[in-house]
Amino acid sequence: NAGVMQNPRHLVRRRGQEARLRCSPMKGHSHVYWYRQLPEEGLKFMVYLQKENIIDESGMPKERFSAEFPKEGPSILRIQQVVRGDSAAYFCASSPPSVGSGNTIYFGEGSWLTVV
Amino acid sequence: KNQVEQSPQSLIILEGKNCTLQCNYTVSPFSNLRWYKQDTGRGPVSLTIMTFSENTKSNGRYTATLDADTKQSSLHITASQLSDSASYICVVSPDRGSTLGRLYFGRGTQLTVWP
Questions:
Q1: In whole angstroms, what is the distance from residue B15 CA to residue A14 CA?
Q2: How does DSSP assign B27-47, residue by residue?
Q3: What is the mean pLDDT of residues A94-101?
Q4: A66 has which bridge partners?
Q5: Residue in chain B nearest A10 by alpha carbon
Q6: A48–B49: do the CB atoms touch at under 8 Å?
Q7: How far apart are the first and last CA of chain B?
Q8: Which residues in chain B are contacts of A43 at CB distance < 8 A?
């Protein structure tokens, strides 16, 4: 059973370009979460999605950032017009429903975005 | 404000020694607390999960404790190994019995084990 798959693992973009990060959840998981980790900082919640629905996007910056989890295919985190401050590791996680009851949330290996 | 504070920020110990990492949280309501291990350049890996009714949980050489009254948790590592060198992250979930997965992360304790 493959784990949470993220790609690309490393991405370099010039300022003003777009970055697209992909996440395929574990088989059977319908819940996807995106987190951002800045250097020397903890992981910060960005967005929580179920298939075709954004459940909680309270951690997403208001501009330039968007996320989707279509009926078919991976979840996509899209960053438009990237700036140097977007350089970070972006982690995707997935879980079955009812994570509040203590089900494990599994993380991918992360996508490292560098903006030059 | 929902926060998770960890201490110490970093720790160096010799191989074979024990150590204890601390986590204090103000997240409310509280559902469960998780400890994750994150190797450099990798994603976090779950070590333990404790609900509000549990006060201790072990996973091999890792033992986590939880005091929901004082909102404190600790992770005790026994007979440390070089491979234990990593960041240990305390994570708190505020949601109880729901499908919402919002988690609050501490900044982690960077543990280095020397031979």
A1: 43
A2: -SS--EEEEEEE-TTS--EEE
A3: 68
A4: A78
A5: B41
A6: no
A7: 41
A8: 44, 89, 105
More confident residue, B97 or A97: A97
Which two structure tokens, joined as six digits, stand for B3?
């926060």
B98: pLDDT strictly greater than 80? no
- Reported as a single tens digit per residue, the pLDDT across A31-89 is 899 999 988 788 888 999 988 899 888 889 989 999 999 989 999 999 999 999 999 99
Q: How far apart are CA B79 and CA B84, in angstroms?
A: 10
The CB density around residue B60, as the number of other CB atoms within 10 Å, is 8
**A42: which chain B residues are within 8 Å (Cβ-Cβ)?**
4, 89, 105-108
Cα A72–Cα B97–Cα A59 angle in degrees, nearest 5? 60
Q: How far is A72 from chain B (nearest CA, A)?
A: 21
Structure tokens at A110: 């992360």
Which is it for strands A19-24 and A10-13: parallel, antiparallel or unpaired?
Answer: unpaired
- Among residues A107, A86, A104, A100, the alpha carbon closest in space to that of A23 is found at A107
pLDDT digits over B9-50, tens only? 999 999 999 999 999 999 888 888 999 999 988 999 999 989
Check if the beta carbon of residue B46 is closer than 8 Å to that of residue A105: yes
Q: How far is CA B13 from CA A60, B32, B38, B81, B107, in A?
A: 38, 29, 18, 10, 20
